Amino acid sequence: MVEAVLIDLFSLPDNLQNNMQGLLCNTLETIEKYSSIHAPFVYVMCCQRQRSERKGEQGFLLPALGGVQSLKRRLEVVRALTTAAALYTIKQRLDEKDLSIIKVILPTLRKDLMKAYIDHLFTTVYQFEYEDLQVASDSENLQIPEPQGEGQTLPSQNMALIQSEIQMHLESLPSLKGELTILRSSLIPDDIFLHGFTTRTGGISYIPTLSSCNLFSSSKRRDPHVVVKENLRRLANAAGFNPEAFHRVKVNHANAVCIMGKTEPDSYDGIVTNQKGVTLAAPGADCIPVLFADPVRKACGAAHSGWKGTLLGVSMATVNAMISEYGCNVKDILVVLGPSVGSCCYKLPHESAKEFHRIDPKCVRLFDSANPYIDIRRATRILLERGGVLPENIQDDSITDQNQNITFCTACHPDKFYSHFRDGTNFGTQIGFISIKD
């Protein structure tokens, strides 16, 4: 069942401006009388001509709504200077109402163009169906002609223009939820390494569970890649790294490690390098983003450590990769655990908890319960120490000076961090990142 209708009048040329009310009226009457859609939300997308003196987005179309009272309260006219701006505004309205199934009524010649915009601004969470805009007028069908240069085929230069237009619009948007904030460890020397852990503030993601500096896009979530890319650009500007030399682990909740410069595995939860200016990153939204730095051999790494990766020893696998690839001494390697779900909140089924209990009984609280509390941070530290990393070279929430603590519980701090455990499937993601300075 269609939940919303988008009527694209953006390309209506000047000589048809006076006919807009009639075009819209007939289209709305068709929706109401002949469609199986029951009182859908209707969004009309129009071009805001820079010379236009019209005031208000909807007032000039009200006369067209005479016979469609059931739609009147569910209709919004969105006027903008660009297709990207208008469509992104409509996306916000759809997300506010959690709508996902949309019928797009538009001129035939504009269909391929609109599909290109939608492919960039939406994910597969949404379903679109398209219908030609053909409005009866004096017993004839009137089709809105396509402006010069917008045809059915989209050459590469047209795609580049679309991408540029979207990027310019996103860059113009204000940051949400305050300034972009980066947490840094005092353990990692800042004269050699650039590093940090992100929080959820300072980006443009507006969906509550993704707001605002979400740094991961998924087909199962509502944040498209272009929005995450803009959040990353803002982070890179604030932190001082090059977003074009940015490498994030390909999460598989296992223990494979990628060596920069060698063949990249299909998936891996650890990554290491000794190349300057290359930024490595690991995501976390309860799982631990772990950073590694060797100031002697000037090598670094990042790892994503969830409960499965912790049990599989992904952190120690990353340390071992630095030793074998770059000649690092295990006693020189510094390890910092970023924000992650704490033992105060995190539970696992009893069978999984047994594995942590084998590492150390102190990693499990209420062991005899059906779902004991698990301390994946403590387990990570224990496995690192058993592997030869010095206790004083590991920073987590056990440090004496809590003013230096950056290993906060993500589930306990909804104002600062994303949490899959807390927010459900449409959750946002923060990252830990590190690079060797030039």
UniProtKB/TrEMBL annotation:
Q: Which domain of life is it from?
A: Eukaryota
One MF term from GO for this chain? S-methyl-5-thioadenosine phosphorylase activity
The answer to whether UniProt assigns keyword Zinc to this entry is: yes
- Give any single GO term for biological process: innate immune response
Q: State the reactions this protein catalyses.
A: adenosine + phosphate = alpha-D-ribose 1-phosphate + adenine; adenosine + H2O + H(+) = inosine + NH4(+); inosine + phosphate = alpha-D-ribose 1-phosphate + hypoxanthine; S-methyl-5'-thioadenosine + phosphate = 5-(methylsulfanyl)-alpha-D-ribose 1-phosphate + adenine
Q: What is its main location?
A: cytoplasm
* Similarity comment: family membership: Belongs to the purine nucleoside phosphorylase YfiH/LACC1 family.
Q: What is this protein called?
A: Purine nucleoside phosphorylase LACC1
What is the species of this protein? Answer: Piprites chloris (Wing-barred manakin)
